[in-house]
Amino acid sequence: MIHRAKLWSQLWLAGCLLALSANASADLPPEEVGQVARLPELVGDHWVWVPDRLFRHSPLFDGDSGKMLGAIDSGMHVPKSPLWSRSRNEIYNIDTVYSRGHRGERHDYVVIYDSRTLDFKAEVEIPPKTMDTGTAIALVGMLDDERFLVALNQSPGTSVSVVDLEARRLVAEIQTAGCAAVFPVGPTRFGMLCGDGTAITVHLKENGELDRIARSAPFFDVVADPISEKGVRDGATWWFPSFQGQLYEVDFSGDRPKPKEPWSLFSESERSEHWRVGGAQHLAYHRGNQRLYSVVHQGGPGSHKDPGTEIWVYDLPARKRVDVFDAPNLIPAVLGPQAGFDAEGTIGKILDFVLPNLGVHSIAVTQDPAPLLFVRHIDFGAVGVLDARSGEHLRDMSEAGLSGVMLVLP
Questions:
Q1: What is the per-residue pLDDT for 3?
Q2: Rounded to whole angstroms, how far apart are CA atoms 153 and 176?
Q3: d(CA 58, CA 118)
Q4: Pick from 146, 136, 141, 49: nearest CA to 96
Q5: Cα–Cα distance between 5 and 223 in angstroms, integer?
Q6: Predicted local confidence at residue 2, as pLDDT
Q7: What is the pLDDT at residue 216?
Q8: pLDDT in tens, 371-406
Q9: How many CA within 13 A on the CB side of residue 25?
Q10: CA 79 to CA 137: how far, in whole Å?
Q11: Pure H helices in 196-320
């Protein structure tokens, strides 16, 4: 914990530095307006969506240049994951709207955008009860052949809406009482986690209607050590961390889910030092090199939402930690555009040194041979960009909004 007097002295010094840079913004060239852009034909390996829950939109950034490429709007609720269809050159987003702004009759839609112009193309109305959470993680997914979209509902029981994206119509609403979150595992299958410590596989018919639901045996204790829905995927296998740092592997390739014995992300000595998994979107996985990235912090029970200043890297097949990355301090990247200084210049480096590093909540890793690791704090409008192989802090993407949780790769 930072001593209060020390923190005030740090903030005083930061204020002095910002005052010195106050005139710098006057030297910036005027922004050219009225331009109409078009996205490239091919989706970039290092693009990332950065949904903002206050502005209620999802900007798309290029991790190489740090520039925003465009944005799509969302409805009244926390933005859910934008879903990108390469086969149809379309983007899908879930919108919730009310007839009187923030009240009145509710309508939910799958909104369809052109993936090159980001123009609106069409919409499909779905049951007006799509689930809303603070993170919006695992609430919507596109199945593997890009035909079906599945969206989680809660009102108050849980169900899943299935939309045929080719026909642009609602196919079914499947009742999934006691189970939540959607995890795509094939063209006509998705998994869910359940409140009795089990998982289910929902099998669809070729037309998207329900075929059957198959349930696993109980494999985690929902009271003693619940698992998080912030999982990572490789094919039909998903990994889920527990609050106490156990990593569970679930194979959804068969008729019913097959959980495997969990293993601990922390040694006994690390547990004694109170290291824990924490944050929001706190796991990322690179399928090519089989590296698992986890945001960690030191804290007690109930701190599973706290940000972390370190990112631990694991060799997943070997079940061992192989590296530790320092999470960058994102405060200079937030202040720089507002005060008119270069966050990567002298003033930014001084602020990075004197201001406390509040850590990050969310991470995502690109899947190319030279991967980038994106990091964000839920209350900062900036995203850090790291080399996912070395942990080197390459750059920051500033002015990425005000507040948000997710980092979504197209």
A1: 47
A2: 9
A3: 11
A4: 136
A5: 40
A6: 46
A7: 98
A8: 999 999 999 989 999 999 999 999 999 988 888 999
A9: 11
A10: 10
A11: 268-272
Q: How confident is the model at residue 355 (pLDDT cuts 50, 70, 90)?
A: confident
Q: What residue spans of 117-262 are helical by DSSP H? A: none
3-state secondary structure of 270: helix
What helix, strand, coil percent values describe the chain, rounded to 5? 10, 40, 50
Cα–Cα distance measured from residue 382 to residue 329, given in angstroms and rounded to the nearest whole number: 10
Distance, in Å, from the CA atom of 62 to the CA atom of 44, rounded to the nearest integer, reads: 8
* pTM (predicted TM-score): 0.91
Q: Cα angle at 15 between 14 and 21, to 5 degrees?
A: 95
Q: CA 398, 404, 408, 410 torsion: positive or negative?
A: negative
Q: In 3D, which of 10, 5, 16, 48 has the Cα closest to residue 339?
A: 16
Distance CA 219, CA 232 (A): 18
Q: Which of 398, 405, 383, 407 is nearest to 334 (CA)?
A: 398
Instruction: Report the C-alpha gap between 273 and 283 in whole angstroms.
Output: 21
β-pairing verdict for 47-49 and 291-298: unpaired
Closest CA to 181 of 222, 228, 148, 111: 228
3-state secondary structure of 341: coil
Please provide residue 140's backbone torsions phi and psi, each rounded to the nearest 5 degrees: -150, 150
Structure tokens at 101: 């702004």
Q: Please count the other Cβ atoms lying within 10 Å of the Cβ belonging to residue 28.
A: 9
Determine how many CB atoms are found less than 10 A away from the CB of residue 86: 11
Tell me how far apart the alpha carbons of residues 387 and 238 are, in angstroms, rounded to a whole number: 24
Q: Do residues 93 and 110 touch, judged by C-beta distance below 8 A?
A: yes
Distance of CA 283 to the CA centre of its chain: 9
